[in-house]
Amino acid sequence: MTDPDRVLVFDTTLRDGEQSPGCSMTQPEKLRVAKALAELGVDIIEAGFPIASRGDWESVNLVAREVHGPIIAGLARCTREDIDTAWRALKDAARPRIHVFLATSAIHREHKLNMAKEQIVQTAVEGVTFARSLCADVEFSPEDASRTEPEFLAQVVEAAIDAGATTINGPDTVGYTVPESFTRSFRTSHAMCATSTEPCSPFTATTTWGWQSQTAWRRYVPGHGK
Length: 226
What we know:
By secondary structure, the protein is of the alpha/beta class. It has 8 helices and 6 strands, in the order βαβαβαβααβαβαα. It has helices at residues 27-40, 54-66, 80-90, 106-113, 117-134, 150-163, 179-192, 214-220, and strands at 10-11, 44-48, 71-77, 96-103, 138-143, 167-168. A 6-stranded parallel β-sheet has the order 1-2-3-4-5-6.
């Protein structure tokens, strides 16, 4: 188990960062950035979204083969095709991770996925279970966690952990919240999760709980960023 006093750095420059206007990269550029991140001591590099395109798959596979030290992660939706594609891109890495995600907020459930809560839980469990059958390191993200009902968020997270997720990432997908509000959500979900005392519990040593705006963190949380 990771030292609970150590902050792990999860870098998604090659995946989420590339969505910024004007920031798309060629394969050689991605490899150069990945090697620089490894030299900096980044713990986890999210190398891309392998099923998005042939080029993205090849970039993830290149980083997986050529970059050593950090965990190399690839993003996948909770579908067998996505997960299998991600694994084929990642399997040559010394330390591979499959990062699966599924939207959990009410607005996403109703308007994007057209799925009931029970279907969300079942799909998350199936996705994590299949990912774990391929890879020992599986991260699960409840997309739009900051707008998800705390009780349901805890339910999905607990189900993902029971299915084998080794890391939980709670993203503020659309930049909805500020750090103080996210802190309350963090604490509430932790308190609600029945497995919160287990080694692979959410929001503890094996968990990343990410928000997108570090500027907001420095601005709104007293004592930080001084």
